Amino acid sequence: MARQKVAEQFVDILVRAGVRRLYGVVGDSLNPVVDAVRRTPAIEWIQVRHEETAAFAAGAEAQLTGRLAACAGSCGPGNLHLINGLYDAHRSMAPVLALASHIPSGEIGLGYFQETHPDQLFRECSHYSELISNPGQMPRLLQTAIQHAVGRGGVSVVSLPGDIADQPAPEKSIEHALVTARPTVRPGDEEIDKLVRLIDEAERVTLFCGSGTAGAHSEVMEFAERIKSPVGHALRGKEWIQYDNPYDVGMSGLLGYGAAYEATHECDLLILLGTDFPYQAFLPDDVKIAQVDVRPENLGRRSKLDLAVWGDVRETLRCLVPRVRAKTDRRFLDRMLKKHADALEGVVKAYTRKVEKHIPIHPEFVASVLDELADDDAVFTVDTGMCNVWAARYLSPNGRRRIIGSFSHGSMANALPQAIGAQFLDRDRQVISMSGDGGFAMLMGDFLTLVQYDLPVKVVLFNNSSLSMVELEMLVAGLPSYGTTNRNPDFSAIAKAAGAYGVRVEKPKHLAGALKDAFGHKGPALVDVVTDPNALSIPPKISAEMVTGFALSASKMVLDGGVGRMVQMARSNLRNIPRP
């Protein structure tokens, strides 16, 4: 009986770690691994058109499941194409294993065809990046890479020369039990005691929540009720904390709305829960701040802390709730809820005025209708740029929906590739790609991947023929817009030519019907919506230092935009305020 090859052993270990798909583009140095996948029923090779798509798809899968996902690229240019998607996965704390296949081992360092040094190139976007230089290394090195990705939350890269992958594996290789899930982390008693004292001494406490509150919704609500705290969130905290939240005061930051900014500045204790919120200009510098985070390197790097607590948000709150003194004074909470509702009432008027007759179509209207028609458990993948604004303000989380985007890395073209990874997880779950025309065109080739695998992803294209976020950045800097206009085709015609369902919408009255028809179609579909390029958005508070690196403007071209169904929730929360 023939001995197992290194490539076969590699694939077997991936399967043991729970990997069910390997996204990539084939190439000669990858051939032994791809062939091993072909002969292994428990794992599938997913052929994409660009390796960047492979990395984004794996990252989305990992974010949705919390489990390890994998992608691969052939030597040199093939694996280099992975790098942008891997940066995104790494910054999103998505456990992803990337296989960077390599040139023949005997040629490394000699300027061979397609030679790069992937073990060095990927170090900045990974927790672990190493080269397998002989067959005996492989099992332990791959297992170590998997445990880095899962245990620390992020990317590991294994560089494997094609000739080594094709060699026989050692007969007595060392294998051990794999770590495939992360533990919870409880803070020490001393830190809990200090946090209890800070909370008990404060009259006005605000909670500001990020993605680290995933799985802790009930604990945050119980805590907020006990200390009568308004609850704001960052963009990555939206899907976890906004729904069923009678303490909601909206979102702070560059895409913010409501009273979250005021709530974080008018309290005397701000507690940051599971957020690495990057925009210091939106954080106060004259109130006490405590931060709870499972990653100690995040503690205090955005603001000066009065207390740093290293721990999982859910476990920390479970320790806190029984120990903090219940507060009875709701005045601060009720005042922030009223401010939040008033703020949303003000901006909703701009959104509703003649919106159903406006041509080109308001993108706010598109996002609002999309939110109404989408399934209650839909997965939304959102392109960077103005689509982030519309998703932040119009998509309504409910505990079952998911919203995935390049929220930390900020890459263009992420939505379509991430939708591919999301749809492979569950073909029966609705997956909607909210794509901008610039991002969609950048990796448009992988629309063909949808067709090839008959993936029922629905691409809703916000087509304003411009890079409008960049255009807004130029306006902020006092520059004329230049290089931001796209001469676009009829994208629906391209979808039809590729063998998918396609429809173009130019009038608001046709939008709902077009979306319903696309959602009812069993295969991939694209709805090309021609939207108003002048519909832009501003955050609730603006200062000069906020403009760097992002689009902010108070010019007359900027609209406040609306907030969709969030105003209904704000009105509902006002009914919870006790009346004298």
TrEMBL record:
<dbReference type="Pfam" id="PF00205">
    <property type="entry name" value="TPP_enzyme_M"/>
</dbReference>
<keyword id="KW-0670">Pyruvate</keyword>
<dbReference type="InterPro" id="IPR029035">
    <property type="entry name" value="DHS-like_NAD/FAD-binding_dom"/>
</dbReference>
<dbReference type="InterPro" id="IPR047212">
    <property type="entry name" value="TPP_POXB-like"/>
</dbReference>
<dbReference type="InterPro" id="IPR029061">
    <property type="entry name" value="THDP-binding"/>
</dbReference>
<dbReference type="InterPro" id="IPR012001">
    <property type="entry name" value="Thiamin_PyroP_enz_TPP-bd_dom"/>
</dbReference>
<keyword id="KW-0786">Thiamine pyrophosphate</keyword>
<dbReference type="Pfam" id="PF02776">
    <property type="entry name" value="TPP_enzyme_N"/>
</dbReference>
<dbReference type="InterPro" id="IPR047210">
    <property type="entry name" value="TPP_PYR_POXB-like"/>
</dbReference>
<dbReference type="InterPro" id="IPR012000">
    <property type="entry name" value="Thiamin_PyroP_enz_cen_dom"/>
</dbReference>
<feature type="domain" description="Thiamine pyrophosphate enzyme central">
    <location>
        <begin position="192"/>
        <end position="320"/>
    </location>
</feature>
<feature type="domain" description="Thiamine pyrophosphate enzyme N-terminal TPP-binding">
    <location>
        <begin position="5"/>
        <end position="120"/>
    </location>
</feature>
<dbReference type="InterPro" id="IPR011766">
    <property type="entry name" value="TPP_enzyme_TPP-bd"/>
</dbReference>
<comment type="similarity">
    <text>Belongs to the TPP enzyme family.</text>
</comment>
<dbReference type="Pfam" id="PF02775">
    <property type="entry name" value="TPP_enzyme_C"/>
</dbReference>
<feature type="domain" description="Thiamine pyrophosphate enzyme TPP-binding">
    <location>
        <begin position="383"/>
        <end position="529"/>
    </location>
</feature>
<dbReference type="InterPro" id="IPR047211">
    <property type="entry name" value="POXB-like"/>
</dbReference>
<protein>
    <submittedName>
        <fullName>Pyruvate dehydrogenase</fullName>
    </submittedName>
</protein>
